[in-house]
Amino acid sequence: MLLLDLIEGKPIKRTPIWLMRQAGRYLPEYRAIKERHTFLEMCHDPELVFEITMQPLRRFDLDAAIIFSDILILAEAIGVPVDFLPEPHIQQPLRSASDVAKLATHNVQHRIGFLLEAIRRVRQGLPEEKALLGFAGAPFTVAAYMVEGKGSKDFVEVKRLMYQNKTVFRDLLAKVGEALVPFLQAQIEAGCNLVQIFDSWASVLSFDDYCEFALEAVRPVIMALKAQKAPVIYYINGAAPYLGVLKETGADVISIDHRTNPRHAIEALQGLVLQGNMDPAVLLADEAVIREQARKTLRAFKGAKGHIFNLGHGVLKETSVEAIECLVDEVHRA
Amino acid sequence: MLLLDLIEGKPIKRTPIWLMRQAGRYLPEYRAIKERHTFLEMCHDPELVFEITMQPLRRFDLDAAIIFSDILILAEAIGVPVDFLPEPHIQQPLRSASDVAKLATHNVQHRIGFLLEAIRRVRQGLPEEKALLGFAGAPFTVAAYMVEGKGSKDFVEVKRLMYQNKTVFRDLLAKVGEALVPFLQAQIEAGCNLVQIFDSWASVLSFDDYCEFALEAVRPVIMALKAQKAPVIYYINGAAPYLGVLKETGADVISIDHRTNPRHAIEALQGLVLQGNMDPAVLLADEAVIREQARKTLRAFKGAKGHIFNLGHGVLKETSVEAIECLVDEVHRA
């Protein structure tokens, strides 16, 4: 498995590639499913999850599939229902110690049968050399969503809680972390070869707050997963301010966004495999630009211990299928 | 003038403080004006601009006023009308070479009489020891707004243009830059003691793209302003990836957001005065937290050549007047 070989430091024939949100709205066959089902139906039905997860693999020679799901499936599994309107919306956001106390973090693996069933099917349907990624949101990101109740620009509610009721917020992070371990372990046991933890929102924090809250909360999760012998990728959108401490997450791979300079990441994260980081908007340009920027990204990571080609963020819905074909082809050629 | 003395390296008795968006929705007297006027009416009426600019200075012992306006007033002045609904909205966003060619960048100073008149009044009404700041958006940020047409998460349109039609995008940046110089010079001539250039959106760019487009476009503007002998503050929201090249902007002061680690900024920007960077959300907490975090911010900038206390971003509308009082008091005590 190219992806695992790279992470384990074995010799590899070329740079592996997969794309965040490779199953998504840019694909006509995804949109066809989306027209007939709500987002939660899509997440809850193992057959649909299987189908959507496999869609990009049928079109493109990618080195990994990532199970189709949402980081808020964990919120739902610990007792915080989420609507998708289509943006995620939590009717009763958490704001107090008693809200946090009510979270049902035990045996979370028993409440995600649909996801585990889908993972088993995908692993069976995937060619042996392709990796299957499980995933989850990092404690800070999931907690922030549960406190904020929806997407946010300023994260007023989560920061109000964090600055004013540090203990309650820490309890919340710890509870999410406790649930995350069996949540990801179950995905690995069901057939995922590695997992990616998305800290999509951690970069709203100052450096000190990142260290005190986001990093402190994700580290024990990653440490607990190490026992599973499945590698962990940690993705943080807006990684630049925190590069100097990301090694402390314990992750095997750090996945960086396109704003983060690969050179800075290589310097700060010696000895770690890096993933990233072409701007997803490059895929809106023509073939020549895509090929040039893909080569530039490959060159930029030359000094890293290893490089998994990815975008700095998810595939944009405006992307064409031809753009992805061209990108995969260029990475294969290199 | 405390602020200018600091920038000029003269001895000062304490750290100066002003706050981005110190005139704004958190103030009841601002909301009272806003109820009776549209946002554009407020920007276009010298008396209202005077009034709104002075409001925070009447309440708090701040060291500077910043003229009330909007970065898109420049767009309007070069022939791109903007509606505020209340979010900025441009009916005919720029997308082509001919759109760019139509921009009326000459003599922009003749089309901002309302703003210059307001500046004259404020400078007259302001105590001598308080600085008056003029401002503008940086070329990339203004250009991005004009191409995108509204706020954006992914900046699909501006990046599509940037990657696909580099020449058109460069022309656009150059044209905005050409207009910016007289726009800011006129503000200085009317009475502003210094100016701040906001590159609020530049941090959507990769390091290389930042250097190639945003930095290249703002540098000549700042260089041209140097002749005016009014100091220039360059603010970039999400500064961390670019710290190593921000000195090349030529700005006298670099203003950093709250995600950027002051220690990294001090290291990268030796010899420059820094401004920032307390998380605006701290002001939602109680007095003890505000005072503690204010002292922490002051300590964090101790190694800089000079420090202007500010937030990492604008005052949040949820902020209380008492929170600002408490912050200003703590900075004065230190």
- Please report which band the strand proportion of chain A falls in: under 5%, 5-15%, 15-25%, 25-35%, 35-45% or over 45%: 5-15%
Query: Quick one: which chains have the greatest interface?
Result: A-B, 38 and 38 residues
Uncertain parts of chain A: none
Outline type of chain A: globular
Number of helices of chain A: 14
Can you tell me the CATH architecture of chain A? Alpha-Beta Barrel
Structural class of chain A: alpha/beta
CATH topology of chain A: TIM Barrel
- The helix/strand series of chain A, from N terminus to C terminus, equals HHHHEHEEHHEHHHEHEEHEHEH
Query: What oligomeric assembly is this protein in?
Result: homodimer
| Helical proportion of chain A, percent range | 40-55%
The radius of gyration over CA of chain A amounts to 19 Å
Mean pLDDT of chain A: 97
How would you describe what is shown here?
Two copies of one chain form a homodimer. With 334 residues, chain A is of the alpha/beta class. The first copy, chain A, has a single domain (2-333), classed as Alpha-Beta Barrel (TIM Barrel). In chain A, 47% of the residues lie in helices and 12% in strands. Chain A is built from 14 helices and nine strands. Chain A has helices at residues 2-7, 28-36, 39-44, 46-59, 73-77, 97-101, 113-125, 139-148, 156-164, 166-190, 207-226, 262-268, 287-300, 321-333, and strands at 64-66, 83-84, 88-89, 131-137, 194-199, 232-236, 253-256, 273-278, 306-311. In chain A, the strands form two sheets. A seven-stranded parallel beta sheet of chain A has the order 1-4-5-6-7-8-9. In chain A, strands 2-3 form a two-stranded antiparallel ribbon. In chain A, strand 8, helix 13 and strand 9 (306-311) form a beta-alpha-beta unit. In chain A, helix 4 packs parallel to helix 7 (113-125) and helix 13 (287-300) packs across helix 14 (321-333). The relative contact order of chain A is 0.14. The mean pLDDT of chain A is 97. The interface between A and B is large, with 38 and 38 residues.
